[in-house]
């Protein structure tokens, strides 16, 4: 570019807003200052397949503690003798995370719970007319009186206490806010909002939490079911509106199809503030925690799971692959290495492109000219029109192609052969080979259909 055409140097990126331009919404937001209440050992135990013996509960609690969640919520000790014993056992582990147990807002339950050694109680009672009529049969006046009584009792024991209204989004708003005002005045540490049936959308969540933020001075916890697919978005909207605590479970397990998943919430919050999330959670442990829980409840980690799904960092189409190899930010919002994962570029299919194939050639140490890479890419596409090839089949094809290209070069001009081979090795810095955490993606490729005769013959 001629000197006269030079652009002025770019202004430094603006990282802080001028105070007068900070919006009220930004001041409310807790997306950079929130806590996770991990409820795999409470809500997760309500998942249809869940049965956690003591040893498993302890392993899960330790893993979550190591990951860095701020709270671990346990099943009510009133549920069974073993639940009581397990609650006590987990309290004795000396974990960094605070241990909570989840009980009905009733003195009988609270009296048992405060003796277990927990750091706090999560009290709950249904406030929607449906639950008042068909679950516990109590009216709002009774609920209010009971709530204050139980809160005072728990506080008198020096424990943290949260009060939550089950089915908040189908409860009367005036009833709800009056109740929360009363419990806030009674000195509750947190109030909870629960979308028990998964009916809420992010806008409703934002409105309710923001309104509540103006009514109570205590912390606000939110619990979102995923029946209509909004559990993560709702959690994010709640934090934007000033909620301070979000309930999660590993892989989202819980009643019906569950709640906000721990991994999904991490992915979302990392996108909002990578350093903050990486600073407080050991993200590379997610995969092991999910595998531990999946194995215990006899499910597979879903293919499209946030972060750890087998194809979460697999890139396929040629246009994507080229750009990814030049700069991964082009098609990745999450950096796989931040989660102990590995990127994988899949090439044995008809959507592949020569840039991706060239990259694989370089990985294999096989030098070809760009024109030759384009030729072998055409061969891959032709074969992959019959069925996709796995990585070993692609490698076989590339090696065969390379050997015959080399032989041809030597035949034509023996002294120039090695020059050709070296000329295309200029892309080494951008390589991405299948590696241990990409093995799921590689194995999936291998397990596809057996080779039809014409494909196998070409590779033989
Ligand atoms: C939305 C949620 O996930 S809330 C959390 C759900 N968790 C659990 O249910 C924990 C596991 N539950 C259990 O082990 C049992 O249900 C128990 C021990 C809590 C109660 O068992 P049971 O006494 O046999 O009652 P059952 O489960 O049939 O019915 C629930 C009882 O709790 C009462 N109840 C429900 N919510 C509340 C509440 N917040 N405060 C007081 N009582 C309540 C109901 O009225 C009903 O009592 P009743 O029929 O004896 O009058
Ligand atoms: O205690 C809470 O806030 C939530 C209880 C619960 O699991 C629900 O309402 O779905
Ligand atoms: Zn729930």
List the helices and strands and how they pair.
Blueprint: H1 24-28, E1 35-38, H2 54-67, E2 71-74, H3 81-91, E3 98-104, H4 107-113, E4 120-126, H5 129-136, H6 140-156, E5 160-166, H7 173-185, E6 190-195, H8 202-213, E7 219-224, H9 231-240, E8 245-248, H10 262-272, H11 274-280, H12 286-296, E9 314-315, H13 318-326, E10 344-345, H14 354-363, H15 370-384, H16 391-412, H17 417-423, H18 439-446, H19 453-459
Parallel strand pairs: 1-2, 1-8, 2-3, 3-4, 4-5, 5-6, 6-7, 7-8, 9-10
Helix pairs in contact: 2-3, 2-12, 6-7, 8-9, 9-10, 10-11, 13-14, 14-15
The structure holds acetyl coenzyme *A, 2-oxoglutaric acid and zinc ion.
Residues 46, 76, 78-79, 104-106, 124-125, 135-136, 166, 196, 255 line the site of acetyl coenzyme *A.
- The value of Rg in angstroms is 28 Å
Structural class: alpha/beta
Largest sheet: 8 strands, parallel, barrel
Low-confidence stretches: 1-15, 420-433
CATH topology-level name of the largest domain: TIM Barrel
Count of helical regions: 19
* Helix coverage percent: 40-55%
Major beta sheet, strand line-up: 1-2-3-4-5-6-7-8
Under the CATH scheme, the architecture of the largest domain is Alpha-Beta Barrel
Instruction: Compute the separation of the termini in Å.
Output: 52 Å
Strand content bin: 5-15%
Mean pLDDT: 90
Query: What is the count of distinct domains?
Result: 2
| CATH uppermost class of the largest domain | Alpha Beta
The CATH homologous superfamily of the largest domain is named Aldolase class I
| Helix-strand string | HEHEHEHEHHEHEHEHEHHHEHEHHHHHH
Ligand catalogue: acetyl coenzyme *A, 2-oxoglutaric acid, zinc ion
Query: Looking at the structure, what is the overall shape?
Result: elongated
Work out the number of β strands: 10
């Amino acid at each position: 570019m001629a000197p006269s055409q030079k652009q002025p140097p770019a202004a430094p990126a603006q990282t802080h807003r001028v105070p007068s331009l900070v919006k009220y919404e930004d001041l409310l937001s807790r997306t950079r200052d929130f806590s996770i209440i991990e409820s795999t050992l409470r809500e997760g135990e309500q998942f249809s397949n869940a049965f956690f013996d003591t040893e498993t509960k302890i392993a899960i609690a330790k893993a979550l503690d190591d990951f860095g969640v701020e709270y671990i919520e346990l099943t009510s000790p009133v549920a069974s003798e073993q639940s009581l014993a397990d609650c006590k056992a987990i309290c004795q582990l000396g974990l960094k995370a605070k241990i909570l147990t989840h009980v009905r807002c009733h003195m009988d339950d609270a009296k048992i719970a405060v003796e277990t050694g927990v750091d706090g109680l999560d009290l709950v009672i249904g406030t929607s007319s449906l639950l008042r009529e068909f679950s516990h049969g109590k009216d709002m006046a009774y609920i209010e009186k009971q709530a204050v009584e139980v809160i005072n009792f728990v506080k008198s024991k020096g424990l943290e206490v949260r009060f939550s209204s089950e089915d908040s989004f189908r409860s009367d708003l005036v009833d709800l806010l009056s109740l929360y005002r009363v419990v806030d005045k009674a000195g509750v540490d947190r109030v909870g909002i629960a979308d028990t049936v998964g009916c809420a959308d992010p806008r409703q969540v934002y409105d309710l939490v923001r309104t509540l933020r103006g009514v109570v001075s205590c912390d606000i916890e939110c619990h979102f079911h995923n029946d209509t697919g909004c559990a993560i978005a709702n959690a994010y909207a709640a934090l934007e509106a000033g909620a301070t605590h979000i309930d999660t479970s590993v892989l989202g397990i819980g009643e019906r199809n569950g709640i906000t998943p721990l991994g999904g919430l991490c992915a979302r919050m990392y996108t909002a503030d990578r350093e903050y999330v990486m600073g407080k959670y050991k993200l590379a442990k997610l995969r092991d925690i999910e595998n531990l829980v999946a194995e215990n409840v006899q499910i597979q980690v879903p293919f499209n799971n946030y972060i750890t799904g087998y194809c979460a960092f697999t890139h396929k189409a040629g246009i994507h692959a080229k750009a990814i190899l030049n700069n991964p930010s082009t098609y990745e919002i999450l950096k796989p290495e931040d989660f102990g994962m590995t990127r994988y570029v899949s090439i044995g299919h008809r959507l592949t492109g020569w840039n991706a194939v060239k990259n694989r050639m370089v990985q294999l140490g096989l030098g070809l000219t760009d024109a030759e890479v384009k030729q072998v890419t055409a061969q891959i596409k032709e074969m992959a029109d019959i069925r996709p090839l796995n990585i070993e089949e692609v490698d076989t094809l590339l090696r065969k192609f390379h050997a015959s290209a080399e032989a041809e070069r030597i035949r034509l001009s023996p002294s120039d052969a090695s020059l050709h081979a070296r000329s295309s090795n200029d892309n080494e810095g951008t390589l991405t080979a299948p590696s241990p955490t990409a093995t799921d993606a590689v194995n999936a490729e291998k397990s596809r259909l057996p080779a039809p005769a014409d494909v196998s013959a070409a590779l033989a």
